[in-house]
Amino acid sequence: MDSGTGDRRLELYVRAISGGEPTASEHARRVRALAASGRVADATVLVWGEEVGLSTTAFRTRVGKCILDRVASFRAWAEERGGSMTPFFDARTVTGTVTGECYASLRLPVSCLAEYEDGDLVHVAPYRAGSTTYTVEHRLRHHERPAGEDTAEVGAAGRPALH
To answer: What does the alpha-carbon distance between residue 11 and residue 66 come to, in Å, rounded to a whole number?
Structure first.
């Protein structure tokens, strides 16, 4: 449950911040505005790209390990709540354009919002619980609501969130 005190820290992960990803750019602007207005304690926007390899090579790079560790923590968070990160984080087989070799890759969403309180992960979007999908857009609207307004989050299926 949200405390509403502005002690929440947000991390927004995006594929790119450019004209080609207007949704990610808009999410980044809104996350920064939440921090600037004091609605949240801090906000960081991180570019993580379109995909990350699932090979042992990716685990040996600092960036690859960081991304894969974050995604693992997001999945664990969703599973603890009976939810799933599928289809937002999908593994797929990719053929390298230079070598022609096939490799496993994890396709990353256009944007993903992680929320922390006291260092603990307390929410991730997007994720799915049953037939309800919770998106980055839902979470941003939740944080942008005026103080005192009903803060029950509603997912894409129109059901209140129970977390």
So the answer is: 13
Query: Contact 68/35 with Cβ under 8 angstroms?
Result: no
How many angstroms separate the CA atoms of 96 and 54, rounded? 14
Q: Is residue 152 part of a domain?
A: no
Give the pair of three-digit tokens for residue 36. 């600037």
The type of residue at 116 is Y
d(CA 102, CA 42): 40
Domain carrying residue 14:
9-144
Residue 74 in any domain: the answer is yes
Number of domains in the chain: 1
Q: What is the pLDDT along the chain (163 residues), one digit of tens a residue?
A: 444 545 899 999 999 887 667 899 999 999 999 999 999 999 999 999 898 888 766 667 888 889 999 999 999 999 999 999 999 998 888 887 888 888 888 999 999 999 999 999 999 999 999 999 999 999 999 999 987 665 555 454 444 443 3
**How far apart are alpha carbons 55 and 109 in whole angstroms?**
19
Asked if residues 34 and 4 have their Cβ atoms less than 8 Å apart, the reply is no
The 3-state DSSP class for residue 143 equals: helix
